[in-house]
């Protein structure tokens, strides 16, 4: 199982430190939702955990420091889907999602039957099969977002970092995507970290929630412990009430 440990992480841009003193642990197969107001440092934190930003502190997966792993092994250990990806727009959906299989390819670098099967299954589950041959630049925003996520999922890494995965997705596709991530967690023991602005989705899917404010951890715990009207008023200057659906799932509702 891929237990993710983050110890005293600090990161930022040039001399501008954005996050500091962040420590957290996500058990193998766990789901941590990172929430917080605009500019709190959620994307910066995720990029630093992914090793894409210079940082101090430690990131360990399964007890091993991420920085000590060779590139290919690191890609099998951790997958990251950014909020605003740079896309090779001429590629087709299938070819782009197949790039997620790169760390698993044999010495000749050719994809095998298993790679194609993984991609085909993901396209089907994310409602992308009909778009398989389309070039990325012809896709709608939501279709492109699902394609980016399909590539990250195709990597089959032990740890999955998703930055605002539901941005631009309608409610049905957002639920399909989060359900799929949850299934991978159950089937493969994937450890999941997502940033999410939608607090109801964060509460319904995350096992634990980390509230980031001004680059530091303001609270961490179960969704019920962290997503209280008082903490949301303090950290977001928001007026909300916490309701529950008939099956007991929390709904964070704005009040006028
Ligand atoms: N490439 C960059 N260079 C300089 N500063 C940056 C860069 N990217 C982000 N920042 C700054 O770092 C701070 C945190 O940004 P970040 O994107 O991590 O926040 P966030 O919590 O993900 O915000 P949002 O909810 O608005 O997406 C902001 O003040 C932002 O302006």
From TrEMBL:
SMART domains listed in its UniProt record: AAA
Residues annotated as domain ABC transporter: 4-239
GO MF annotations, alphabetized: ATP binding; ATP hydrolysis activity
Alphabetically ordered keywords of this record: ATP-binding, Nucleotide-binding, Transport
Top-level division of the source organism's lineage: Bacteria
InterPro entries, per database record: AAA+_ATPase (IPR003593), ABC_transporter-like_ATP-bd (IPR003439), P-loop_NTPase (IPR027417)
PROSITE patterns documented for this protein: ABC_TRANSPORTER_2
The keyword Nucleotide-binding is annotated on this UniProt entry: yes
Cited SUPFAM superfamilies: P-loop containing nucleoside triphosphate hydrolases
Protein name in the entry: Iron complex transport system ATP-binding protein
């Amino acid at each position: 199982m891929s237990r993710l440990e983050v110890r005293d992480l600090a990161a930022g841009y040039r001399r501008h430190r954005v996050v500091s003193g962040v420590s957290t642990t996500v058990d193998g197969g766990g789901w941590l939702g990172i929430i917080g107001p605009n500019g709190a440092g959620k994307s910066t934190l995720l990029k630093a955990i992914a090793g894409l930003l210079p940082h101090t502190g430690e990131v360990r997966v399964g007890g091993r420091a991420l920085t000590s792993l060779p590139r290919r092994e690191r890609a099998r250990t951790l997958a990251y889907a950014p909020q605003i990806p740079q896309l090779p727009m001429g590629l087709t959906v299938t070819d782009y999602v197949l790039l997620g299989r790169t760390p698993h390819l044999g010495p000749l670098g050719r994809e095998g039957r298993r790679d194609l099967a993984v991609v085909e299954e993901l396209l089907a589950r994310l409602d992308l099969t009909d778009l398989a041959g389309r070039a990325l630049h012809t896709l709608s925003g939501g279709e492109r977002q699902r394609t980016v996520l399909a590539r990250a999922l195709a990597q089959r890494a032990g740890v999955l970092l998703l930055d605002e995965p539901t941005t631009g997705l309608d409610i049905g596709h957002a639920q399909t995507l989060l359900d799929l991530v949850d299934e991978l967690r159950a089937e493969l023991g994937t450890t999941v970290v997502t940033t999410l602005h939608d607090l109801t989705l964060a509460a319904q899917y995350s096992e634990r929630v980390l509230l980031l404010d001004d680059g530091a951890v303001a609270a961490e715990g179960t969704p019920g412990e962290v997503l209280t009207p008082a903490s949301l008023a303090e950290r977001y200057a928001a007026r909300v009430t916490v309701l529950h659906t008939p099956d007991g799932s929390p709904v964070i509702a704005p009040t006028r």
